[in-house]
Amino acid sequence: MGDVIQFDPFTSIVRDDVPPHMDDFGRLLLIAAFSDLVKLRDSAANERSRKEADAIVKRIGSVLERYEPEGAA
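Predicted structure:
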């Protein structure tokens, strides 16, 4: 996986003077998508759909773990 680079979407300026990280807004968006996928997985009508959604949930969970804030439980 590559590094996350902070940028300002309104000015299209890429900043490389900060270390790789995920900002709070991006983390919240990813957590919301993760939560929706977990609900979708848990309510899947068949086993195949459940397994496919579970694979995506696990990958997003890995990303969330990688960028978990320091000291978070």
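Summary: The two ends are 23 Å apart (CA to CA).
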